[in-house]
Request: fold
Amino acid sequence: MVERLLNSHSTLISIGQFDLKLNHLLIIGILSLSFSISFLLRSQPADWGWELNEFDPFFNYRVTQYIVENGFASYFQWHDNLSWYPDGRDVSNTSQIMLHITAATTYWIFGGGTDLYDFTILFPVVFGSLTCIVIFALVRVIGGTTAGLFSALFFSISFPILVRGTLGWFKSEPLGIFYGLLAMYLFLSGIKSDNAKIAASKVIFSGVLLGFGFASWGGIQFFVIPLGLFIMSLPFLRNDSKFLSWSIPLFIISTIITTISFDRPGIGFLTSLGGFGLIVPTLFMILLLFVKTFSTNSQRNMLLTLLAFSIIVISIFLVGSEFLPSASFRYLNAINPFLTTTDPLIDSVSEHATTNIQQSFLFHSVLMIFAGLGIWLLLKHSKHNLIKNDMISFSLIIGLVGIYISSAFIRLEVFASISIIILSSLGLSIICKEFFSSNIEISKLKNLTIKSGFAIGLIVLLIAPFLISSNTTIFALTDKPAIILNGGTAFDITSSDWNDSLEWIKNNTPEDAVIASWWDYGYWIQTKAERATLADNSTLSTEKIKNIAKIFLSDPDTAWKSLQDAGADYFVVTIAAQRYVVDGSENQPIYRMGGGGDESKKQWFMRIAGEPLGKYLYNDGLSGTETFWNETLLGKMTPFEPIGYVNFQTNQQSLTYQTGFTGIYEKSIKFSENETSPMKLVYYSPSFDTEKGGSIIGVFVYEINDDYVPIN
Reply:
């Protein structure tokens, strides 16, 4: 049925030499539906408020604003003095350049006088939704229109992709994936073209776009792995050696020239794993083509050459790692998911957590089954010319590599999604083509009933996972407030605490004031409060972050000295808590801390600072000991103190900590405004003074007392 509609050549409207046919209308309709579904799902956070989401988008907005106001030339010379005080930051050398350039350029073209902040909030929704059309084009080149339409629909509802491209997610992933998939489409389309001029223009442009992808998001270097493997497989799959000998090098050269023309990745890309991953397979392909052309038993000799090459590569990885280009742990971990890190700073980032089986099923659901079916059908039909062998090879390579890579950590699940979407779309298109084109020897009515039942069953199977549980559907999981509205806590609420606090800092501190805080909040302070910070989310100096962790855990006098040395004028902490009223007594509320503020991160401060957890925490890993409360700066800056412990399962109470008990707290401001102390509390956000039971997302601004004289 679907195939018949797609293959229908009934002309509806003729415009010049173009005939609008029924199949064109169906394709446009499904692509419009995919774009609309993606756009609506990504826009759900607007229900909570219109803000940039997470942390990096605030820096990206500030940089885009700088380009809009000062131009590209100034951008490439900009040294940002609000970052990493007192060192600052060379922006173009440490940023996703094409994200900023693309955003500024599209704003000049399409902004129409709108507020830039609003434009950047909507930016990821538009580009993420447009990628539905890009992946349609990619999969259509591989396996036909039906497969392409399946992929567009699946992409529009893929949770790992949606959650990293919702409203306000002005980060690298949506644009990087857009450029990366568009580059893959043009590359495959180019090497399938029979016209040399068209092929050349496509592979050159695809290389340029892939370079744009590298400059938009470092994660796009994922495509280097399947590309390298695919390039090495081409001499075994195709006989047009002359075409391959110039088209593939042309693609690689255009990619490299584009990539190294940016400050980041820059010229270093040539000697990086990414550069090696493109250059070495291309040279090896040329070697295989030489063997194929001038060898009498070409297949055998090519296989022997491949075997020798594989042994050399594996040997280098196993025993000669010093010959490999240097790379960060994140890239090495992606290549080898079994690597473990001893760096607690890396471990403290939630998106670096390893994906577990439950999360994989939540992310991909029934598509995992169809992806496996797709692999089997691609291998089964490889001799039937339904899909060309080189396209089958690309599909299998990118599919299996994407699934493998994503096992390293959660952030890379976007590549598992892309892989599973490609494989499942191809598998479903083959199933539909075979089933609906088969002639069952029964009456037409029964034939129609069977095929209609198959279609309905397939639809139910595909949509059921999204409707089973209201708490785990994509509708619920993407309907979350921007992090600045809930302070990065686990509370599904919106509050003005952080916005009010940043506005207070902007209006009530000197313009040259320097703010200390945990690195999570650096970009918020720089962008909304317009003040310099000691550290921010770029993590350019792990030593400075480690020093802040040590300050949190130092005694107040030692911490004061360290803050003076660092040049800090204010210290910002955030505490999440729940307020409870016992027996209707509004005058004596009690509090339960925990939920995502600094009080929930203290165990990471200890790991990063190299301090023993047992010194500051009880055996639940969360409740602070007397040493934490009485001897650390964080304990003193936390405006609560424990008054007892409760076992909520048995309702038992205790004045001292016992295993299985949870701390209960009351308000207690230790560094008050009138005290002579290392610092004084000069501002706290509104929810700290809430008069009714509810969530507290408290932001506390302490002014560091320059006149303080340490006791020791």
Remarks:
- The chain has a mean pLDDT of 86.
- The first helix runs from residue 2 to 6.
- Residues 30-464 form one domain.
